[in-house]
Amino acid sequence: MTDAVLTGEERRPFGWRQLLICLYGIVWRESLRFLHQRERFISALVRPLVWLFIFAAGFRQTLGVSIMPPYDTYVLYEVYITPGLIAMIQLFNGMQSSLSMIYDREMGSMRMLLVSPAPRWFLLTSKLLAGVAVSVLQVYAFLIIAYFWEIEPPTWWGYLSVLPALVLSGLMLGALGMLLSSLIKQLENFAGIMNFVIFPGYFASPALYPLWRIQEASPLLYKICLANPFTYAVELIRFAFYGQVEWMSLGVVCACTLLFLAGAIVAYDPSRGMMARKQDTGGNG
Fold first, then answer.
1. What is this structure's pTM?
2. Taking a C-beta distance cutoff of 8 angstroms, is the pair 243, 153 a contact?
3. Less packed terminus of the chain by CB within 10 Å, N or C?
4. Per the domain annotation, does 254 fall within a domain?
């Protein structure tokens, strides 16, 4: 009885102070990694800027966008694709954060993190929040450049109203990447998985074309777009940029975030997830 009481006292859960210290440490580590990897920041901006300045400029006259919510008038094509490019930044960041988790797992630092006394769900959520913070900084850097290209919300309030949408979409895409990282055993295999997720997810969405136009061209592709979580992240950002809320997109993004994060937490459980599979394969994962 006494041993049980002592064991319970020794294993008492972290207090809020310890949890905050843990959160600070994880966010600080991810921030330092981001600052030391300047090419990651540059590549995150170059990719959407190429789409914005070259692709959109070439298709401006060919692919006009008619009046549709949340737009009150006709908009240029580069204005339409900007929310999709924002979501693309967050998608790539989520995949890169997951790539770093696989690297940490192979180097052993991930195991050290997961065996700490802090709850596993809190550790994974903290790492997810750190990745979201980095992606939000990348998005606002992109918006600053886009501003000089005359791409801006109707009012300055749009830069603030889009922030909750960026956080939610970043959480969903980051949780998706975290779930994928738990399923990949070797670092070399993740590049193919990234391409399999990123490009179909991006092109099978309203990031480049309105859903009504996709429906007219291919009803099957339209159904695929509706089943794509990335679709709702794009629409959530698009409406939030104009100070509006697309409630269906909000619900889908929140539900997918919880689903992906719960799956990642279960997969990183040493007794049945990633660690168990690694032990089954003799530690080669």
1. 0.83
2. yes
3. N
4. yes
